[in-house]
Amino acid sequence: TTTLVWLRRDLRLHDHAALYHALKQSQRVIPVFIFDRAILDSLPRTDRRVDFIWQTLRELKAELQALGSDLCVRHALAAEEIPRLAQALGAQAVFTNHDYEPAAIARDAKVAASLAELGIAFHTSKDQVIFERDEVLTQAGGFFSVFTPYKNAWLKKLDPFYLQTYPVTRYQAALAPLTPEALPSLADMGFAASDIGQIGIRTGASGAEALFTDFQQRIDRYKDARDFPGVKGVSYLSVHLRFGTISIRQLAAYAWQRGTAGSMGWLNELIWRDFYHQILWHRPDAVGQSFKAQYVDLPFPNDRSLFEAWCAGQTGYPIVDAAMRQLNQTGFMHNRLRMVAASFLVKDLLVDWRWGEAYFAEKLLDFDLAANNGGWQWAASTGCDAQPYFRIFNPVSQSEKFDPEGKFIRRYVPELARLPSDALHAPWQAKPLLLASAGLRLGHDYPEPIVDHATQREKALALFKRSA
Ligand code: FAD
Q: Using a 6 Å cutoff on CB, does residue 226 contact ligand 1?
């Protein structure tokens, strides 16, 4: 029998559920990737994600060609191309891994229906999370919308079975022998190469493995270091988890078996990832809409010039500006700063969280609908947060606490680099003489704060209170 394995968010050959099942059940397995025009056509022509995928596919192709097979890559509408290709290649079945995003679910339903008409089977597996859909439920049988009880139930359910590796190599003789085909170039698809090489992003399973090896040296210190953006405290694996260049089972198993405070703290974050995926599965209506019904129509003033200053990293609040400039320059933002920047947009600038969510979705290399929507709604108090809306981050105290020496601010807001640490977090409060000696003219070299935090905080409280 011949089968296709359709790769999507799982761009690796090891510990891969769909690939494993296909190899085990058929004699001739053809791996396929579609640059889906339904996604690509609306993206900017230089997109770091497209480049990341392209470079990762180059590595995958070389690996498969070394095994006498190949990766079949097309630039087309996936919903049409998969059934067409399956028929043209004489496949009896298509194997793929679950995707929980509403658009992907609709696409997969279309593919399944077209394949069924052709008499071709469609098999799907869980792969990108440890527990999916209805696997972790409350005692009453509902889904969890609060993280801590979800986490407790998740940990209670966990056993080595769920962390087992799919032994793909054992069955790899079933990969179809194929004549190597060239990878379509980025230019062929209307895209330009990005700067991911210059900013040091390593792609593919090899890039993921290198990052994970490095993080293993630091994982025990994760809990203490994870909140400080100026310190190398986190794993930086998010883009690899997004595109599946590393297996979630491998990571969760390592953290769990190690069992230190640091590694369990890290496992906690992997559980957040599962949490938001199951929220997306149960509440697809919360995409583009408040999760909590009472906040659906919050009357945000939505001042476009404030939004634009936030996007550009020109708000006059150094920690927020450093965060936004990190995002713009590197496609990454540290988790602490995602919380601070998101809170600032919603509760200081009074801009609809969906504007910020969309901006992050365009810029983040690790953009993931479940985590991004979850993170934004958490920060905006419209989503799954046990805390009520009156938790409002103070951007100055967050800065003092998590970037005390201003290491991070100095890197991304170089115009402030010469200020002493105690003046760095709120330069508008510094003595004019001090600013002058650092060669800084506020309002000229760096903006005055575009809003007053205390004033805006009151406005945000009033805005939410009306709907609460
Ligand atoms: P680590 O601290 O090393 O964590 C390990 C992994 O756990 C991450 O790679 C990620 O897969 C997962 N993880 C960590 N924190 C979270 C979380 N809060 N929610 C879900 N998964 C988590 N993460 C994304 O992957 N894509 C997004 O689009 C995204 N948007 C966000 C938007 C906002 C407003 C907020 C507050 C958070 C967002 N996050 C998102 C979560 C988190 O900030 C990133 O996953 C993390 O900063 C990535 O860095 P890391 O890989 O070094 O993380």
A: yes
d(CA 94, CA 22): 8
288-303: per-residue pLDDT in tens? 999 999 899 899 999 9
Identify the pLDDT of residue 39.
96
Nearest to 27 by CA among 93, 111, 112: 93
| pLDDT at residue 297, rounded to an integer | 86
CB distance 338 to ligand 1 below 6 Å? yes
The whole-number pLDDT of residue 386 equals 77
**Is ipTM over 0.95?**
yes
Q: What is the average per-residue pLDDT within 279-284?
A: 97
Instruction: Provide the CA 160 distance to its chain's centre, in angstroms.
Output: 26
Read off the tokens for 42.
């609306």
Are residue 354 and residue 401 in the same domain, yes or no?
A: yes
Residue 372: CB within 6 Å of ligand 1? yes
CA dist 341 to 4, 324, 451, Å?
Answer: 43, 7, 14
Q: Whose CA is nearest to atom 3 of ligand 1?
A: 235
Q: Which residue has the tokens 């905006």?
A: 380
Domain around 278: 129-164+205-282
Between the CA of 257 and the centroid of ligand 1 the distance, in Å, is 22
pLDDT digits (tens, 9 = 90+) for 345-387: 999 999 999 999 999 999 999 999 999 999 999 999 999 877 8
CATH code (residue 372) = 1.10.579.10
Annotated binding site: 222, 266, 269-276, 366-368
Last residue of a domain, one of 282, 304, 321: 282
254-265: pLDDT as tens digits: 999 999 999 999
CB burial of 405-435 (b: ≥16 within 10 Å; e: otherwise) equals ebebbbbbbebbeebeeebbbbbeebeeeeb
Taken as a whole, the chain contains a residue count of: 468
pLDDT at 468: 79
- CA–CA gap between residue 131 and residue 346 (Å, rounded): 32
